[in-house]
Prior knowledge:
Mean pLDDT: 94
Strand content: over 45%
Helix content: under 10%
Oligomer: single chain
Order of helices and strands: EEEEEEEEEEE
Amino acid sequence: QVQLAESGGGLVQAGGSQRLSCAASGRTFSSDVMGWFRQAPGKERDFVAGIRWSGGSTFYGDSVKGRFTISRERAKITVYLQMNSLSPEDTAVYYCAAGRVRTTGQYEWNYWGQGTQVTVSS
């Protein structure tokens, strides 16, 4: 079992920046991919960003492209989400996830963190 622990959430003003961290622990980490999702009140959970663990390639949801950057630190089994130019629409609970790549190429997210709240004030 893999445990994921997010940190770095909080209150930030519009236009500001915030960095989230997610540390993985537990049995030998063998996930292919890690990523971030978010869920605003009354809305579905949306994909934010992902990173392939071995090669480091990244991919983003359309709403955050150009503003958010995902990165990883392999030695610490930690993934980061640097969020810039934040707006109130970015207010949500942000969840870290880890998973594998299916033979079809689709991602299967098997493990989830508890989530961390990010609130952007106008």
